[in-house]
Design goal:
Elements lengths: L1 H17 L4 E2 L7 E5 L4 E6 L2 E6 L4 E6 L4 E3 L2 E5 L5 E5 L3 E2 L6 E2 L1 E7 L2 E7 L3 H4 L1 E8 L2 E2 L7 E5 L2 E5 L4 E9 L2 E4 L3 E2 L7 H14 L4 E4 L5 E4 L4 E5 L2
Antiparallel strand pairs: 1-6, 2-3, 2-12, 3-4, 4-5, 6-7, 7-8, 8-11, 9-10, 11-12, 13-14, 13-15, 13-22, 15-16, 16-17, 17-18, 17-19, 20-21, 21-22
Amino acid sequence: MKLKRWVLAIAPLLAACAAPTVHHGPMPETPLRAVGNEPGWHVEIGEGQLRVVTDYGARQADHPLPAPQRIAGGWRYRIDGGPSVTLHERLCHDNMTGMPYPMVARLDEGERTLHGCAGDPHILLQGEWEVTELDGAALLDDSRITLHFDGERVSGLATCNRYFAAYHLSGEGLTLQPAASTLMMCIDAAQMAQERRFLDQLGEIRHFDIDAQGALRLITPDSDIRAQRP
């Protein structure tokens, strides 16, 4: 009898331990888009709706947007009797274009599970960066080059002068408009050459990437610029 009462007493505790740690949290910033390939699919989250498009656009279903469940490292949107979309806050690369995204996405639909990426790649660029390498070589001693991405504009210190340029990010990659800069003289020819090389490379950028350590690569056809957070 005592054993039975003990089992009944601890049963709720065992059930609580076995349950996944999931709690309702605030909705991620919307609108939000998740995308994947082979077969091509995407999910659009926002404006009270969750739209699921699969099989290269051949199938589409719109659902009322459910409250997101906060799970470890992300969120889950679950449609009763329908698909679920899981988002985890960690770096993801599109497996066709290589574009980095801020979230990993998974779409579960019936017996099928599809994988992809989610969020706005702009988020990964925003803020301050310190350039560490040009063309694989470290910067000159006692010199600095910085990047500050804000909205669709980048600015910073090019070595001796301040600069700014507009940039455009699309599914095809990253491009910058020719940079404008102040016209101060550098203290020597080496610094002048480094600044000119950096400004020239800005106009040649075609893609960007974030590595596993969080460092930024601005990639041109022949070289790259590497930077890290200050």
